[in-house]
Amino acid sequence: MASLLIDTFEDDKPETTVRIPLVVLTIAAKLIPRSAFQAMEAQGINLQEVIQAAKSGEISGQILEVVDHQKKERVLISVV
């Protein structure tokens, strides 16, 4: 079953990992860390479009990486 995977890192050390099955992602979207959601929006990524594309098999793998060098934070968003 496909999932949306969100990994957050601070100083290149894993901080948080969230795995959300796509079948419940619409409901679970409220649980996505705010920083990850903001990172997607800042990059022009529409979560609903990602969900539909992932469910249909159109996309997979890493879809976004955001690095804040000043805060030494990194967010990876993948469809796995």
TrEMBL record:
This is Uncharacterized protein.
